[in-house]
Amino acid sequence: MRMIDIIIKKRSNKPLTQEEFNFVAQGAAKATVPDYQLSSFLMACFLNPLSDKETAMFTKAMAHSGGRLDFKKITKLPKVDKHSTGGVGDGISLALAPLVACAGAAVPMMSGRGLGHTGGTLDKLESMKNFNVRVPVKDIYKQIQKLNVCMFGQTSDLAPADRKLYSLRDASGSVESRPLIVASILSKKYAEGVDSLLMDVKYGSGAFMQKLEDSRKLARALVTTAKLLGIKCRALITYMDQPLGHAIGNASEMRQTIEILKGNKNLAPDFYALLVEEATQMLLISGAQKDAKKARKLVEEKIANGQAAAKLREMIKWQGGNPAVVDKPAVYFKDAKLNYELKADKNGYVEHIDAKTAGCAAVLLGAGRNTMEDAIDYGAGIWLNKKGGEPVKKGDVIATIYASDKKRLEAGVALFKTAVKIGAKKPAAYKIVKEVIK
Predict the structure, then answer these.
(1) Which pTM does this prediction carry?
(2) Which is catalytic among the residues 10, 79, 82, 83?
(3) Is the pLDDT of residue 115 over 70?
(4) What residue ranges in 195-330 does DSSP mark as E strands?
C-alpha cells in the first residue's frame, strides 16, 4: 500500500477502506509517512468531505494507532464520559464527574488543557496543590473500581495519530472540515473505552462554532459517528455568547464548583442548571436511570445531601490532593494579589458580557495560554459580580479582575472593559440548553 495512491483516491472523491485509513493513522503515529503527504491527504479530505461511514472508520483508525483503555472488567456500573467543545467559565466537568459517579455510573473522564480563550479542565484541577492528572493506566482502573470516578489527562499512547494530524490540520488550512473535527474529538473518546458519551456543543462568541446552525451540524455529526462506533451518544447544544457562572479563571472556578457541589445552587444559577441537565442526560444515556424526572431528582438529591461533595473529596485524596480544599475552598484557592474593580458608569442593566472577549482578557491576566508552553497563573482571572440581565446603579462593581503582574492587570482590564455593555432596557433572558440531539 502506498500513501500516494490513497491521496489520489481521495482526491478523486472515491471512498476509502478501513485498511487505507489504518495505513494513514499508523503512518502519522509512527512517522512512516512524511508530513507533506499527510497534509496533502488532509486537504483531499477537506475538498472531498468524508462520509459518515468514512468518518467512523477514520476515527477508529486513529483510536487504534496507540493503546486503548479497557473497562470491560468493570461490570458493576455503566461507563460514561462527557466532552465539551470549550467555553468561558465552563468548569462543569469539575462538578459533573463526581456528581454522576455518586449517582450510579462510572466516570473515567479524560480531559485536556486550555488554549486560547477557552479554559482547560486539567489546568483547573492542577490549581489544587499536588493533584495528579497524569494517572498511570493501572491506577485509573483501580480508582474506577473503588470510587467510580477518575479525572485524568490523555496519555502519550492514546490516539497518537490525532496529535500529529491535529497540528497538520492547522498548518494545511483544513481545520474547518467537520468530519476531521469529529474524528479528532471521538478518536480520543473511542480509545478511552467508554460505553456512552455526552457531547456539550457550544454556540456563541465564546464557542468554537459561533453560529447555532454550525453547532447543530457538528452535534449531529458527532452523535451519528459515535453511534456507528457503538457508543451511545447524545449532544446538548448550549449557549456560550456570555460566560457561564461567575468565575473565569482556574482557582476561582474550582472555588465556585465546590460551593455549588456543597449545595449553594444560588451562587450561579446558570451553572447549576447546566450541571443538573448534563448529569441527568449522562445517567439516561448510560442506562443508569430510565426516567428523566427520577434521574433529575436523584442528581439534585446527591448535591443537597452532601454526597456529591463527599465524592469530590474522595477523588481529590486518591489523586494526591488535600481533601480539605472541599471544606475550606476560600483558604486553598486564593485570587492573585493585584485586583481592579470595574464599576458601572451609569444606571441601567448589564445587557451583555461577550464571552470571547472576556476569555481573551483572562488570558492576558495570566489565567490562560496562547501556546502550550505558556505558564498558568492559577490565581489570575475575573469574578463577575454582575451577570447579563442584572440591574446596576452607577458605581456598582460589575467585575473584580485579578492578576499577579501590574502590566498584565492593566492589559486584562483594558480588554475586559470592551466586553461589557450596559443599556437602559433589561435584555431578554436566554436559555442555557438550546437543543438536545439524540
Answers:
(1) 0.93
(2) 83
(3) no
(4) 196-203, 232-239, 247-248
**Which of the residues 127, 184, 196, 205 is marked catalytic?**
184
123 is catalytic: no
C-alpha cell at 75: 461490570
Catalytic member of 162, 195, 241, 377: 162
Q: How confident is the model at residue 113 (pLDDT cuts 50, 70, 90)?
A: confident
Least confident of 18-22, 197-201, 373-377: 373-377
Average pLDDT over residues 92-101: 97
Averaged pLDDT of the chain:
94
DSSP-derived pairing of the beta strands 338-343 and 232-239: unpaired
162: annotated active-site residue:
yes
184 is catalytic: yes
Q: Which amino acid is at 137?
A: V
Domains of the chain (ranges; CATH) run 3-63 (1.20.970.10), 80-329 (3.40.1030.10), 335-423 (3.90.1170.30)
- The span from the CA of 434 to the CA of 202, in Å, is 10
Instruction: Extract the C-alpha cell encoding 437.
Output: 440531539
DSSP 408-420: HHHHHHHHHHTTE
β-pairing, 381-384 vs 80-84, is unpaired
Q: Is 188 in the active site? A: yes
Of residues 10, 117, 164, 169, which has the active-site annotation? 169
Residue with cell 476569555: 359
Does residue 136 carry a pLDDT above 70? Answer: yes
Question: Can 83 be counted among the known catalytic residues?
Answer: yes
Average pLDDT over residues 71-85: 90
Q: How far is CA 187 from CA 16, 92, 152, 357, in A?
A: 18, 22, 16, 31
